[in-house]
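It is worth pausing here to work through a concrete case rather than discussing structure prediction in the abstract. The textbook approach is simple: state the sequence, then state the predicted structure, then interpret. We follow exactly that order.
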Amino acid sequence: MVNYKQLHYFWQVARAGSIARASEQLDLTPQTLSGQIGLLEASLNTVLFRRVGRGLELTEAGRLALSYADEIFEVGAEMEQALTSGEIKHLMPFKVGIADVMPKSIVYKLLAPAMTLETAIKIVCKEDRLERLLGDLAIHRLDLVLSDRPMPSDINIKGFSHQLVACGVSFFATPSLAKHYGQNFPQSLQQAPMLVPGADTSLRKKLMHWLDSQKIRPIIVGEFDDSALMKAFGQAGIGIFTAPSMIDAEVQRQFNVVKIGQIDTITERYYAISAVRRAGHPAVAAINAAAMDESMTEVNNNLSSFSDNVPVS
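Step two, the predicted structure:
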């Protein structure tokens, strides 16, 4: 049986990133922590840490152990709170990884269906690069990953990507910039100051290809992996910026900018990536179902619009 005191020491070291830092937090000597973790490794017959330079790095077994330790001590904290407060209520954890290039307002819209379930949900969001999030998904530290691209085919992880939404791309500018570059869109973007997404985003390559196809050469005055930071620079009048067309009204209201144009030949797509083992989580099912309903509504609306425009013979 696992010694939970030793597991707790391992958990603290893994979270602190080093034995020295964890020993200060726990008021224990580094030798005591090292010895306890060594005993835990011996009882589990596996290595949890490997030494890299002067630091420690979790092994694959260590990452798996950490995922279980997170759940164990999280439930323990909930139990303590419930018993001491007299409120016996368990919230189902829903752990979501968010690719750091995802617009935050889009993330909220995509996760909203999970917050309306009859089952009480405690949502835990972790933002990081997609590759690292998929590693956590593989060892079941996450239930779902939201990304602007599907799971790469060259990653050996069992799971699936589900497209949640697709929309066009809109261009925004401050009112003063819009006076100069808002007419005759998109040709007005020629030599216009522009803020573009970073190289790690799926939009960057599509946007640059579209500009090239239109023979438009803007002046790139900034590039950003963080879409919120790009919007903040756009709000300051540094340049024209893009955002998914599904949040047009929100962007204009929040950043005091105006929409100068929209293109639908570039499509922003957002995906939910889940491991096979976690596909049955009720929050994951709710998010996928909501996306399916919205997709079918859009298809029906498009069919209705097509039917309305077909001449009656």
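Step three, interpretation. The first helix runs from residue 4 to 16. The first strand starts at residue 49 and ends at 52.
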